[in-house]
Amino acid sequence: MRTIVVNDEGDLADLRARVLRAGITPVARANVEDQIRAANPHLDFNRLSRGQVVALPDLPEILDELRDHGGATYAAVLDQLDGALGRPARPGRPVLRRPGLRDALGSAELRAVADLDEVLAREVTRLGDVLTGDERREAELKTASEAAIARWREGIAALRDVLR
């Protein structure tokens, strides 16, 4: 079962226009609506709100590739973000692939989805700032480590000269 996030759809009729294939019969449409309602008993389909998550049953009448109003698929965004995370080193602890995450954060798909959701947009910005800070600290650590190793080599060379 897939999910979508409500954008500007105010009711089931608006949502139906976004998710159903063209040209289905009224009987098939009613069946799909009944199954969507059954899969989402917590939702009032007469008054949908932006950001609500709707479960969609796996039915042939529902489009294979659901698009948000910006033209990007939520699945593509999730695939990009999943690609930025490697296999967990420990259970529940994914390994971060920074270049993949940087690419995902800069992708047109994520920007299009974030443009539709203020909370997501703030989180994307925050994560980008954290990633930039991590990259800066990593570069500083590398520079400090290289300088320390150079000093150790000089010290070892000087000790070697003394011991000769």
The total beta strand count reads 2
Outline the low-pLDDT stretches: 67-73
Shape: rod-shaped
Distance between the termini: 75 Å
Which bin fits the share of residues in helices? 55-70%
| Widest sheet, order of strands | 1-2
Instruction: Write down the secondary-structure element order.
Output: EHHEHHHH
Largest sheet data: 2 strands, antiparallel
Number of helices: 6
Bin the strand percentage.
under 5%
How would you summarize the topology of this molecule?
Blueprint: E1 2-5, H1 12-19, H2 26-39, E2 53-56, H3 74-83, H4 98-105, H5 108-114, H6 118-163
Antiparallel strand pairs: 1-2
Descriptive report:
The structure is a single chain. The protein is mainly alpha-helical and 164 residues long. The protein folds into two domains: 2-56, Membrane-bound Lytic Murein Transglycosylase D, Chain A, CATH 3.10.350.10; 74-163. Helix content is 57%, strand content 5%. It has six helices and two strands; from the N terminus they run E-H-H-E-H-H-H-H. It has helices at residues 12-19, 26-39, 74-83, 98-105, 108-114, 118-163; strands spanning 2-5, 53-56. Strands 1-2 form a two-stranded antiparallel sheet. The longest helix is centred in the last third of the chain and has 46 residues, at 118-163. The protein is rod-shaped and about 95 Å long.
Keywords:
2 strands, mainly alpha, rod-shaped, Membrane-bound Lytic Murein Transglycosylase D, Chain A, 6 helices, two-stranded antiparallel ribbon, 164 residues, 2 domains
